[in-house]
């Protein structure tokens, strides 16, 4: 039996564990939210993970960077006065300097492009936490949908992050964007 046939015989959840994890994460993140501002930091986290992986020049670094973003979002959610977006931007600046020192400015689709995406996503998240509920929901949902397309592109081109991270993030971003839109317009 070939390796492909062995993989095909495994249950869906084993073959597609990143998608299953993305579904679970979206359910967890979307549970009980009152608007887009509640999950705005996740928009920043999506860009932060890609920048971190590009700066470290290791696709598999995406999962440890994701763990850092998970902690930052958790602290930002639970600790009054802590904005996880600013925490991740500070960490991203450190990673960017490290990346520049290690020569991560090439290829251009690596750290330079990921830094630009992070700036756009973080700006949307920062505006969302200050905006009215409708605008916050639209900004966060748009950021998440944009990043789901970003994930899909990077999954197909096998660039910047591990395939499992791109798959996980595409599912999480898409489902969470839908939840944000439902909550915004319900």
Automatic annotation (TrEMBL):
<feature type="transmembrane region" description="Helical">
    <location>
        <begin position="113"/>
        <end position="129"/>
    </location>
</feature>
<feature type="transmembrane region" description="Helical">
    <location>
        <begin position="39"/>
        <end position="56"/>
    </location>
</feature>
<keyword id="KW-0472">Membrane</keyword>
<keyword id="KW-1133">Transmembrane helix</keyword>
<feature type="transmembrane region" description="Helical">
    <location>
        <begin position="61"/>
        <end position="79"/>
    </location>
</feature>
<feature type="transmembrane region" description="Helical">
    <location>
        <begin position="85"/>
        <end position="101"/>
    </location>
</feature>
<feature type="transmembrane region" description="Helical">
    <location>
        <begin position="160"/>
        <end position="185"/>
    </location>
</feature>
<protein>
    <submittedName>
        <fullName>Uncharacterized protein</fullName>
    </submittedName>
</protein>
<keyword id="KW-0812">Transmembrane</keyword>
<feature type="transmembrane region" description="Helical">
    <location>
        <begin position="12"/>
        <end position="33"/>
    </location>
</feature>
